[in-house]
Amino acid sequence: MRFAISLLVVICITAVIGTVVKQNEPMNNYVNQFGPFWSELFGHMSLYTVYSAWWFLLMMGFLVVSTSLCVARHTPKILRDFNNYKETVREQSLQVFRHKGLGYLQMGPEASLQQINAWLSAHGWRARAQVRNTGVMIGAKKGAAHKVGYLAAHSAIVLICLGGLFDGDLLVRVTMWAQGKSIYQGSDFTQMSPQNHLGPGNPSFRGNLFVPEGSRSASALLNMPTGVVLQELPFEVELKKFKVEYYDTGMPKLFASDIVIHDRETGTTQAATVKVNEPVTYRGLTLYQSSFEDGGSELQLRLRNLSGNDDVDLTGKVGGAVQLGQGEARSTLEFSDLRVINVENLGGAAAGAAGGASDAATDVRRVDLVGSLDKHLGAGVSVGSKKSLRNVGPSFSYKIRDASGQAREYNNYMLPLELEGQRVYLLGVREATGESFRYLRVPVDGRDSMDAWLSMRRALADPAQRNRAARRYAEAAAPSDNPKTREQLEATSLRVLTLFAGAEGLKVNAPSQGAIGGLPALSDFVEKEVPEADRPRVSEVLLRILNGSLFELYKQAQQQLGQPAPEPGPQTQAFMTQAVLSLSDAMFYPAPMILQLKDFKQVQASVFQVTRAPGRTLVYAGAILLIIGVFAMLYIRERRLWIWLESAPGRPEHTRVRMAMSSNRDTPDLPTEFEALKRQLLHEEA
């Protein structure tokens, strides 16, 4: 029994680990969470697939066997004890009991026997009498169901463990072994062969069924420790309509699916609605509303080149992909997701995220020369304690995968957001799925678009445009009667713009990012070329020249767009302040283009959990038995009572009664109960 208890404790600890550590996640998620060493160690210990690990199943099997043997060994004894009243005890033995009593009844032994038997029967005692030469011994007991609690509790452990084994992937593995099936380890499920399919007769499984609106599906995916298996269903599920309601916080409040079940054998149909906590059962299979995803929404996009003017309109579909470029520059654009509702906390936005508001006197010496992306691209919304929840509109996610298979994930908002008094587009990027998105803030122009900023970014990448802006700045800033000063100022302006554009400077660690640019390039130039004593003065001068030159570049960009030249003022100053920081951060944006969402047609999809759980009945029965067993063992006390009846010495018409009582649990109220029993049987006064 001690071995079974030890196994039960270990299984409980393992179940806690399986609850804390997410099961059947991609290995990259565990590497990001635990690091390379621990993630590999935990993988060897099968902590990512605890409930299907061989050692866990072995412990469950040992616990079932051990507990079953314990129940089998004690059951005959307990059943015999139900009919054993121990009326054969000697009358002298009653004197050694802790709870004992002696009294007299004013009637003969035969009448006393009838009266006591009637009283015991009326008060729930089961009794049996043994007639001896010198008297009668009555053996009575009450609360024998206490031992039923022992059997029920131990049987419950067996049933629950068996139910867990049946509803795990043990039967799936046995079925696969018997049918010669194999696990599919790829990512393209359309390439799965018949060897990766299980038939509808699989006795136990738990899989996920993905059904887009207006479509049907009859195959569920079963997650296995090293891949997936496709489970064929005896019916098709058609999703007519998916319904979702949201709280003000943007969290789903209710989601439900209107479905039609098409029986593949009989051809009959059955309409139903699956809601959270309201599953639908058909032919022994239960469909639960698990979650919802995008079902292949159609996207209309505009690809906007950061360096050239060749904007391209694209159409895509969530879950689809588009090839970009040729040869070694070839990449794949993969559309990941569309979120129509995004509720963000826009209250108390704090400056500090990259691309946030700043003044024109930013000290470039304080800009670290670090090529890490998250040092330059900040959080989308940085908030304080004040909350102002607002739906900021749709966003979509996509990945750009290079020829080597490496991919970055991007998340762009369709509409601009107002942050810190400035309307900006948020362009997010992250290197791995476990990371948070870092956002580039692109300011909008007077038409609420990013055209002005994008024209500045393209002009900054064009040497001819930089030369023209430097010349115009020098003409406006230098004295008209001093040509030499104008030439020097033009050369300095051109050098500053060239450094800022990343066309001159040191190479960063990632070759794909090219030469470093933005404010870090100016910081590097000051650190390397200017004596330390002169750096504050030179930094201030360079920033003034940069701001003036970029303003000339802004005017050129507006003229190319057919817009009037911007006039100096608070609005223009706010735009330029954000634009300078945004252009600096854009040098570290790891893509040569920006994708803008123009329009979309949303298609939702439901994810159902489909189960055939023969062990569910065993688990329910085990739970009921466990409740009964625990209640019986804790709240039912077994009490035994012995009563010896004999003729009173010298008074044949009276009966001397000797009593004793015992219990499996000696509680504080047992003496009180025995005293009350004596008074009632012997007619004593309290």
TrEMBL record:
<keyword id="KW-0812">Transmembrane</keyword>
<feature type="domain" description="ResB-like">
    <location>
        <begin position="1"/>
        <end position="675"/>
    </location>
</feature>
<dbReference type="InterPro" id="IPR007816">
    <property type="entry name" value="ResB-like_domain"/>
</dbReference>
<feature type="transmembrane region" description="Helical">
    <location>
        <begin position="53"/>
        <end position="72"/>
    </location>
</feature>
<keyword id="KW-1133">Transmembrane helix</keyword>
<keyword id="KW-0201">Cytochrome c-type biogenesis</keyword>
<protein>
    <submittedName>
        <fullName>Cytochrome c biogenesis protein</fullName>
    </submittedName>
</protein>
<feature type="transmembrane region" description="Helical">
    <location>
        <begin position="618"/>
        <end position="636"/>
    </location>
</feature>
<dbReference type="Pfam" id="PF05140">
    <property type="entry name" value="ResB"/>
</dbReference>
<feature type="transmembrane region" description="Helical">
    <location>
        <begin position="148"/>
        <end position="166"/>
    </location>
</feature>
<dbReference type="InterPro" id="IPR023494">
    <property type="entry name" value="Cyt_c_bgen_Ccs1/CcsB/ResB"/>
</dbReference>
<keyword id="KW-0472">Membrane</keyword>
